C-alpha cells in the first residue's frame, strides 16, 4: 500500500500522461474521409421547349485528404479524387448523320426514354469548417469549394419512334467540367449542392433547326455521406 502522498503523486502523474496523450492526439488528428453522394440532377439554361422528364440521378464516390490549417484543427483544406455517373432525362434528341451530331427538340414524337449520361473522374477542392475534436465524431460542418471533373465516357439513349438510337463517346461534350460545391450538415448525413460554371456541350453543339448554341449547365442537389 502506497502512502497517501505517493498515491496523490501517482494520480498526478497518471493524469499528466493522459493529458499528454490527448494533447498529442489533438496535434495529429485529421478528418480524412470517404464520401458517397446521391443527387438529383437539374439542367440550367435549357433551350426553348426543352424540358426534363423522369428522375435524373447522380451517384458519386471518392476520398478526400484533410489538411488542417489552424492549431484548433477546425479549419482545413480538403483535396480529393472520386468518380461519378450522371444521367439526364430530357427532350433533346441527339442523333448522328454522316459523322455529324444533330440536336432536335422532341415534339409530337412517341418515345419511352431519352437521356444522356456522363461518367467522370472528379477532383474536389474544399475549404472546410467543422466543430469536430479528436474524440468527437458527431459534429457540424460546412465545406465549400470547387470540383473539377473529366468526362471519360458518355452515352445518349433514345427509345421511341421511328427507331431506337444509341450513341457513345459523343465528341461535342465538354471533357472538362467544373463548378462550385457546398456541403453542410451534422454527423454523417449532409446536404450537398453543385453548380456548374461551364456548359455540358462545347460550341459545336447547336440546335439543328435554329443554330442556337446549347448552353445547358448542370445543377445537382442531394445528400452526401461522409465515412471516417
Instruction: Predict the CATH topology of the largest domain.
Output: Porin
How many domains?
2
The structural class is: mainly beta
Q: What share of residues is helical?
A: 10-25%
Tell me the CATH architecture of the largest domain. Answer: Beta Barrel
Q: How many individual β-strands?
A: 11
Describe the structure.
By secondary structure, the protein is mainly beta. The chain has 2 domains: 30 residues; 197 residues, Porin. 11% of the residues lie in helices and 55% in strands. The chain is built from 1 helix and 11 strands. The strands form 2 sheets. It has an 8-stranded antiparallel beta barrel with strand order 1-2-3-6-7-9-10-11. A hairpin with a 4-residue loop joins strand 7 and strand 8. The longest helix has 25 residues. The radius of gyration is 25 Å and the shape is elongated. The chain starts with a helix and ends with a strand. Pfam families: OMP_b-brl_2. This is PorT family protein. InterPro entries: Beta-barrel_OMP_2.
Amino acid at each position: 500500500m502506497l502512502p497517501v502522498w505517493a498515491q496523490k503523486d501517482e494520480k498526478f502523474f497518471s493524469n499528466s500522461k493522459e493529458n499528454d496523450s490527448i494533447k498529442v492526439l489533438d496535434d495529429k488528428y485529421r478528418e480524412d474521409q470517404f464520401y458517397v453522394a446521391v443527387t438529383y440532377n437539374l439542367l440550367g439554361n435549357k433551350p426553348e421547349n426543352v424540358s426534363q422528364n423522369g428522375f435524373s440521378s447522380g451517384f458519386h464516390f471518392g476520398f478526400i485528404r484533410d489538411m488542417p490549417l489552424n492549431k484548433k484543427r477546425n479549419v482545413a483544406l480538403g483535396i480529393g479524387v472520386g468518380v461519378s455517373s450522371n444521367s439526364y432525362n430530357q427532350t433533346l434528341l441527339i442523333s448522328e448523320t454522316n459523322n455529324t451530331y444533330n440536336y432536335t427538340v422532341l415534339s409530337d414524337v412517341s418515345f419511352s426514354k431519352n437521356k444522356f449520361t456522363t461518367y467522370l473522374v472528379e477532383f474536389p477542392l474544399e475549404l472546410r469548417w467543422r466543430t469536430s475534436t479528436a474524440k468527437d465524431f458527431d459534429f457540424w460542418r460546412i465545406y465549400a469549394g470547387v470540383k473539377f471533373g473529366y468526362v471519360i465516357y458518355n452515352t445518349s439513349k433514345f427509345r421511341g419512334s421511328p427507331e431506337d438510337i444509341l450513341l457513345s463517346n459523343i465528341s461535342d461534350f465538354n471533357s472538362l467540367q467544373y463548378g462550385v460545391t457546398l456541403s453542410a450538415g451534422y454527423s454523417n448525413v449532409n446536404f450537398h449542392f453543385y453548380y456548374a460554371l461551364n456548359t455540358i456541350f462545347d460550341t459545336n453543339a447547336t440546335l439543328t433547326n435554329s443554330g442556337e448554341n446549347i448552353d445547358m449547365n448542370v445543377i445537382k442537389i442531394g445528400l452526401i455521406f461522409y465515412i471516417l
